[in-house]
Amino acid sequence: MDPRYSILFEPIKIGPVTAPNRFVSMPHAIGHSYLMPNGAIGIRETRAEGGWGIVAMQLSEIDPTSDLAGLPYERLWDEGDVKAHARSVDRIRAHGALASIELGHTGIRSRGLTTGYPAMGPSVLPTLKPDMPLMAKAMDKDDIRTLRRSFRDAIGRAKKAGYDIAYVYASHDASILWHFLSPAYNFRTDEYGGSFENRVRLFREVLEEAKEEAGDQMAVAVRFAVHELSGPKRILNTGEGRAVIESLADLPDMWDVNVSSWSRDSGTARYDAEGFQEEFTQFVKTVTGKPVLGVGRFTSPDAMVSQIRRGVLDLIGAARPSIADPFLPEKIREGRIEDIRECIGCNMCVAVETVGMELRCTQNPTISEEWRRGWHPERIPKTENEKNILIVGSGPAGLEAALVLAKAGHAVTVAERDDELGGRSTREARIKGLSSWGRVKDYRLYQLQQMPNVNLYPGSELGADGIADFGADHVLLATGAPWRSDGAGRTRLQPISGFADFALTPDLVMDGAAIGPSVVIYDDDHYYMANALAADLSAKGHQVNLVTPMPSLSAWMGHTLEQPRMIAEMKAAGVRMYPNTVASAWDEAGLAVIRGDTGESLPTISATTLIVVGTRLPDTTLAVGLAEKGIPFRTIGDAECPGVIQSAVYSGHRHAREVLGTEPEDRIFKRERPTLFL
Ligand code: ADP
Ligand code: SF4
């Protein structure tokens, strides 16, 4: 091990238990609810194998009143839930890691839809889901007693399941303890409301009882947001984040501190750099003598060491970096820093969870497939029958497929038309705010360049004849999908008058097309491309108008938690925004537009350049040419089905495994099945 990093591998005592190192795979949503225990265990076990010293269970409801109806979280309501948790603990501990569980009651974030019990909070309040017509009731003294009992009982069950550390969750605006603490939500006039001491009372009681129940067998940690960067900001404004730590200083065995709300805690690379939480959390270690854990999208061992040496944190927490590379600690231990598959900070993992799906990741296609498909993030089965494989195109799909097939032992050739390898991962990384997209190709290219059975040929456009001459055993077309210029987009599938002849596409802009002083970007894609180009061109001095037929800009960025910050970025950059505005034609006067809802004509938006970000259409010329020659091939990535980078990487990985013959031919993989009692 590199001695510079040895501090990361020093054990640390946390109450009655000792963590073997400083790496913590954090409690975070994984999209596998209590109904999918096998898949969830697969994710956690892989992390324990990858060297994380503590591996956490995601947020677990403690009783039926903390029901998060429809959101894929965990449950530890009663004895019946203990068995599944115990299995998870066993699998984590089998690899030498400690197992932790985050126990929480989500208060006015609960819904009570499946259980029928009302959501509860310090006061009568709307539940924290503004688009749901639900309210929370004010808890009376009996409710408070029952809640304390529920926390205590859940701690007892966590101990029974064998957990080493149980959390009292008090972070974000998703904890009832936070709701009691915050004057934005707590309007009580009894001993649980008003003064700081009164508002922190429930938190203190729950924590004291948790410690009592845990005894000398299990540590009790607290997760608490010391700073509110969005939301009602009452804790920030009054400086009470610090007051809470001072008041409860040495009561928990470990402080796990972060910022609120979730959208700021999980800041993307576009808006927050590695280690961005330090300015808010650095005071904590000066206030408590207990170990302090924190996050910050850490992927660099130097940054981690610096946090510990400078006394900011004792333990390095990672949610997204552990998704992108479950073997990150092991790679540092073995001195394989270049092998780390660094999180790109895109929040696709968050986005899929918000729509109720199991985790997906741009960098790690094997996430969520550990149990059901048997995919390991590092190991690929070796072939006994070496083949000669040609991959056309070196974007995310081509490089991922090349890596899987080369690791299996095949002879792999990648031919790329451009002089630079990497496809969209290289090209899009040049746009302002998207430089981390380049990590997708950086990781894969570095790996491929180390392998003797791989040949990479940039500047090599291949046609059907060239492919036929090559005589490969398998051909994979990873040739991507160009953006359309004709205006056909997600809300309107037809071309728009004047677009095909005059509009620039993102491809042309990335290739350096000349752009006039004033620009209209028409966004019928609704993710990052249009607004990233807007920010980029605005920074280069162009006057930018951003027009979209949808009622709000970039709806998918609501799921990546970036939408409010992106809109603020557009405003600050002077980009004029036109939501609910449908393009009807482009001519020399500019973009003719109508209102999206009523169809009424709006004033023409004048500009010298039109850029359209609509849909993408694969070029099938090569596929048709190969079919005519009778050469078998697979089309992968964006060329098969245009999508986000995550889907291209996943496609490359899956197709490569299919070439290896390890995937079921009927496409049926293992599924979680409910038990039938009748
Ligand atoms: P994906 O996201 O599916 O990986 P990309 O668009 O990122 O797709 O990458 C596709 C790559 O394929 C581009 O870099 C492009 O230059 C390359 N390409 C397209 N057609 C050919 C071809 N005929 N020969 C070689 N490379 C090609
Ligand atoms: Fe990181 Fe993106 Fe993967 Fe999430 S999806 S872990 S942000 S690379």
UniProtKB/TrEMBL annotation:
Ranges of residues in domain TMADH/DMDH/HD second alpha/beta: 504-590
A GO molecular-function annotation: trimethylamine dehydrogenase activity
Cofactor(s) named in the record: [4Fe-4S] cluster; FMN
Domain of life of the organism encoding this protein: Bacteria
InterPro entries from the UniProt entry: Aldolase_TIM (IPR013785), FAD/NAD-bd_sf (IPR036188), NADH:flavin_oxidoreductase (IPR051793), OxRdtase_FMN_N (IPR001155), TMADH/DMDH/HD_second_a-b (IPR054428)
UniProt keyword annotations, A-Z: Flavoprotein, FMN, Iron, Iron-sulfur, Metal-binding, Oxidoreductase
UniProt record similarity statement: In the N-terminal section; belongs to the NADH:flavin oxidoreductase/NADH oxidase family.
EC number: 1.5.8.1, 1.5.8.2
Keyword Repeat: no
Domain (NADH:flavin oxidoreductase/NADH oxidase N-terminal) ranges: 8-336
Protein name: Dimethylamine/trimethylamine dehydrogenase
Enzyme's top EC category: oxidoreductase
